[in-house]
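Translate structure to sequence.
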């Protein structure tokens, strides 16, 4: 933990101390009986199992089915039991998904679970009745579950924002899209768990836990499917770069630069995914270009240039046949259009060119300038930035160039992108 940012350490201390105060106070204020200990053991075990099967989110962090267990405990039992269940669920995790995880992460997770359960319990105190299926009471349960969800996601987003040096709001909105369906699916299960446990004790509860695990498995399959999509895209790009070794890693770097610009202009999460696919695949049409032309050391003939200029159209044709890639074909087709209308293949200009294609054009130009090619040595970061500014308004969108220069501030920033690419190749 010594290598973590100081701001995260401060946040960690605040959340941990707050959770510790809440937990100790809840335990001390409760008159414990054997039945309370039994409830704690049963639900603590369920919470530990649930939290040991996480599903990673695209923006960092993860979701589990432990939410249903926590809400069920909060509805049924005194605050001392429910807050202890949350703490156990965060601390005592196991399994291959969490192997090698630093202990401070467990402490932070347990702490934010305790704080979230405390927030939910405040809402539950709006009713003095015990467990009930009455409509008004169920509304209060739903409000408590929503409060837990908001608290949980907010604390995680703040922590990830500090660790990743990104806007917590950006992470919050990105993960909300993924987390909300998972939470909404688990709220009814949590209420059903409370109903069954209240009537049939632990036997019925264990049977209901199986659907919980199925719910987690379904969400994992959905996330894995998206990951497999990207792996398919990367395989296509590797097939291209096997023909032209001098551009190895080019598409991946263009993707990272493009995403950095998109995040700077607060592009939506869906559009960033769209842009990432398009950026990684922007040169896929070069599969249809002869290796002799791609690797030619001398000046290209006009017919050879015609072959090069055809690659955006070829790329669009290839992508049209891959259904899961949405409609990124137009972005790939137009990434060589110029802002002044003198580009190819269609000669469109200005904002007629898709925004994603304009972003890719800037990232593509920068990486082309700074990369070594068979016919020349790559230029420096400062030289590349100067060239981008020179062609802004003619070849490239001037606003995107300005944002790109802001994002890629120095040689060290670029080196980080290139190092990341080498480590993941």
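Result:
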């Amino acid at each position: 933990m010594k290598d973590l940012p100081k701001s995260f350490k401060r946040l960690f201390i605040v959340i941990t101390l707050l959770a510790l105060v809440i937990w100790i106070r809840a335990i001390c204020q409760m008159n414990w009986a054997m039945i309370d200990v039994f409830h704690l053991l049963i639900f603590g075990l369920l919470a530990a199992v649930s939290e040991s099967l996480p599903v990673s989110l695209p923006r960092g962090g993860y979701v589990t089915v432990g939410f249903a267990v926590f809400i069920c405990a909060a509805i049924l039992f005194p605050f001392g039991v429910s807050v202890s269940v949350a703490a156990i669920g965060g601390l005592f995790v196991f399994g291959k998904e969490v192997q090698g995880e630093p202990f401070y992460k467990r402490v932070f997770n347990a702490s934010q679970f305790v704080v979230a359960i405390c927030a939910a319990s405040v809402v539950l105190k709006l009713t003095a009745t015990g467990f009930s299926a009455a409509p008004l009471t169920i509304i209060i349960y739903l409000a408590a579950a929503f409060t837990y969800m908001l608290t949980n996601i907010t604390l995680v987003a703040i922590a990830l924002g500090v660790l990743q040096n990104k806007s917590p709001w950006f992470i919050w909105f990105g993960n909300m899209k993924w987390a909300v369906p998972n939470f909404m699916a688990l709220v009814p299960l949590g209420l059903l768990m409370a109903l069954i446990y209240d009537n049939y004790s632990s036997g019925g509860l264990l049977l209901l836990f199986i659907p919980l695990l199925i719910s987690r498995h379904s969400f994992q399959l959905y996330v894995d499917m998206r990951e497999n999509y990207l792996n398919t895209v990367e395989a296509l790009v590797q097939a291209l770069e096997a023909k032209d070794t001098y551009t190895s890693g080019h598409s991946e770097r263009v993707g990272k630069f493009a995403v950095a610009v998109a995040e700077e202009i607060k592009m939506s999460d869906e559009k960033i995914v769209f842009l990432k696919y398009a950026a990684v695949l922007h040169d896929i049409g070069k599969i249809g270009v002869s290796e002799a032309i791609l690797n030619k050391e001398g000046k290209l003939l006009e017919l050879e240039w015609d072959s090069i200029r055809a690659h955006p159209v070829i790329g669009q044709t290839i992508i049209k046949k891959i259904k899961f890639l949405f409609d990124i074909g137009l972005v790939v087709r137009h990434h060589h259009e110029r802002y002044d209308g003198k580009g190819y293949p269609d000669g469109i200009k200005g904002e007629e060119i898709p925004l994603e294609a304009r972003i890719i054009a800037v990232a593509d130009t920068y990486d082309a300038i700074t990369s070594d090619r068979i016919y020349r040595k790559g230029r420096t970061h400062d030289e590349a930035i100067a060239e981008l500014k020179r062609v802004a308004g003619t070849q490239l969108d001037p606003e995107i160039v300005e944002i790109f220069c802001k994002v890629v501030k120095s040689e060290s920033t670029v080196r980080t992108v290139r190092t990341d690419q080498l480590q993941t190749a």
